[in-house]
Amino acid sequence: MKRIATILIGLFLIFVAASLAPAQVKDDPGVAKVRTAYQAAVIAKDAKAIAALYAEDGVEMPPNGPSAKGRAAIEKFNQGLFDQFNPKLAITPSDTKVSGDWAFDVGSYTQTLTPVKGGAPIKDTGKYVVVLKRAGGQWWAAYAIYDSDLPPMPPPAPVKK
């Protein structure tokens, strides 16, 4: 509980500091580099490369499931996705703010997930927020959350006995 409170206070301070800063950065080259590398890694189905973009204690928060905490869990989550789908992804940032060693990147995405075993591709659009932290002169994804603009898929039909 204490960690959650610390995170929330930290995010609040980032937003306050970003809103008070006199000159706002439209897009930061380091943040853009992480975003571009993430998109390329998804298209290449490279779960290890995705995990390497996160801080050691980074958290990926996908829709409709538990968070993946730490690089190993992030890699495992993404590999599970790639085992099922061939993805195409386009990310469009709409707002990037930097305050000291913290940044956030907000935007939208479009993706197509084509089932590996065949079937109709799933087309999706949605939005994301990524909080990044700078360490060792490099940006790392600390928290990433995203969700679809589409309504939830219906539950599977009950199995008839």
Give a short summary of the structure.
The chain is an alpha+beta fold. The chain has helices at residues 2-20, 29-43, 47-52, 71-84, and strands at residues 54-61, 68-69, 85-99, 102-115, 122-135, 138-148.
What does this structure look like?
It is globular and about 60 Å long. The protein has a 6-stranded mixed beta sheet with strand order 2-1-6-5-4-3. A hairpin with a 2-residue loop joins strand 3 (85-99) and strand 4 (102-115). It starts with a helix and ends in a 13-residue tail after the last strand. The protein contains 4 helices and 6 strands; from the N terminus they run αααββαββββ. The longest helix is centred in the first third of the chain and has 19 residues, at 2-20. With 161 residues, the protein is α+β, with helices and mostly antiparallel strands. It has one domain: Nuclear Transport Factor 2, Chain: A, CATH 3.10.450.50. The protein is 34% helix and 40% strand.
Topology, please?
Layout: H1 2-20, H2 29-43, H3 47-52, E1 54-61, E2 68-69, H4 71-84, E3 85-99, E4 102-115, E5 122-135, E6 138-148
Parallel strand pairs: 1-6
Antiparallel strand pairs: 1-2, 3-4, 4-5, 5-6
Strand content: 35-45%
State the CATH class.
Alpha Beta
| Overall number of domains | 1
Distance between the termini: 45 Å
Number of helices: 4
Radius of gyration, rounded?
Answer: 17 Å
Outline: globular
Instruction: Bin the helical content.
Output: 25-40%
CATH topology: Nuclear Transport Factor 2, Chain: A
**Main beta-sheet annotation:** 6 strands, mixed
Give me the secondary-structure category. alpha+beta
Instruction: Please identify, by name, the CATH architecture.
Output: Roll
- State mean pLDDT (0 to 100 scale): 87
